[in-house]
Specification:
mainly alpha; Cd81 Antigen, Extracellular Domain, Chain: A; 11 helices; membrane; transmembrane; Tetraspanin_EC2_sf; Tetraspanin/Peripherin
């Protein structure tokens, strides 16, 4: 019995520390997301060269806020559930992790099997934003300029994504990263792909790294569910 209680205490402490780290990480991401939303230009001035091309396709600030909020809730439930030995909080923690795990599997299946659908969904969301904000929203414009220069791409699909955008209407031309020798790709015979295709190629090229990261995240989620269910079951015996 004493060995069993010692194991329970050890796992409980590890659960608390693990979820405390998640909580702090979530708070950090949430803070950065709010910072980017409020003052995106300062963020780009500091981290522009190190920015992730994948995250820049969507609005990085909202992405960070959503992920940060989820991690905050997850860390709170896990930490408090273990500390207070609350079956309710532990079950909520287990349920949230399970939902996230299932959602990730579904997203992976869609990404692998329905790449065309993913492109259609992104086009439906991102293209209208480009036509509405590029050239009018300084932070949004700067993020896309950095993305296109680093990834060597133009728009989400191609340069026509910027047609009728505030920039196009005001300048009468397309963004500088879309021009090759001062000409549009179709005029100079050059091939400049959209950022979606370029990023997709980068992911395929680094499929091993992406798969390893995904497997590591999945393993952590499974471990978190196993540990939370272990503590939940042990509380019945206590």
């Amino acid at each position: 019995p004493s060995a069993k209680m010692g194991c329970f205490t050890f796992i409980k402490v590890m659960m608390i520390l693990f979820n405390l780290a998640i909580f702090l990480g979530g708070g950090t991401l949430l803070g950065v997301g709010i910072w980017v939303t409020v003052d995106g230009q300062s963020f780009l001035d500091i981290f522009g060269a190190l920015s992730s091309s994948v995250l820049q396709v969507v609005n990085v600030s909202y992405f960070l806020i959503v992920i940060g909020a989820i991690l905050l809730v997850l860390g709170f439930l896990g930490c408090c559930g273990a500390q207070k030995e609350s079956k309710c909080l532990l079950m909520m923690f287990f349920s949230v992790v399970l939902i996230i795990f299932i959602a990730e599997i579904a997203a992976a299946v869609v990404a692998l099997v329905y790449t065309g659908l993913a492109e259609t969904l992104l086009t439906a969301v991102v293209t209208p934003l480009l036509k509405e904000k590029y050239g009018a929203d300084k932070s949004f414009t700067q993020i896309w300029n950095v993305t296109m220069r680093e990834v060597h791409c133009c728009g989400l699909n191609n340069y026509t994504d910027f047609t009728d955008s505030p920039w196009h209407k005001e300048q009468g031309t397309y963004p500088e990263p879309c021009l090759v020798a001062g000409l549009l790709p179709h005029l100079c015979g050059c091939l400049l792909q959209g950022c979606f295709n370029q990023i997709l190629e980068e992911i395929k090229t680094n499929a091993g790294v992406v798969g390893g990261v995904a497997a590591g995240i999945a393993a952590l989620e499974i471990a978190a569910m196993v540990v939370s269910m272990y503590l939940y079951c042990q509380l019945d015996q206590k």
